[in-house]
What we know:
It is built from three helices and six strands; from the N terminus they run H-H-E-E-H-E-E-E-E. It is α+β, with helices and mostly antiparallel strands. The protein has one domain (2-150): Nuclear Transport Factor 2, Chain: A.
Amino acid sequence: MKFTILAGAAALIGSGTPVHANPANCGNERAAISGLLADYRGAIERLDARGTERLFAAESAVFENGGVEGTYANYLAHHLGPELRHFRSFRFSAHQLDLWCEGDVAVATEIYNYRVERTEGDPIERRGVTTSVLRRNGRNWRIVNMHGSSRAPRPVSAAQPSRN
């Protein structure tokens, strides 16, 4: 099942999904999908991921910075949950969301900055991007695949656009 969804999403992306999708193609579903993603970001900012399992399909797959994290339940138990306990704050900024929908499948690309204040050590500032594949089951959208990566922000010169 996981392979079918990922293969389908790859086919959709490979068949001409625009980098900056037209928000109109998600119709009334845009609010539900962007709300789900906002709920996830909000949990991270609250440093409390309890309840976020409801945002993900049981057979989900999470990838982060070149690592395979397994299902979201595994990622939450062994990576995200323990990591959040080492933070004093986590703030997203300059968030941009592009959505593309086809029937019961949606692809979301989020570009953002974030700042982490750790319990020990210097703050961390990063530029991040996350691509999520979501599937609708009945009336509910769930994340089935999430891939995120980040890097230190690049200095912006006068000649460069500010997408950083």
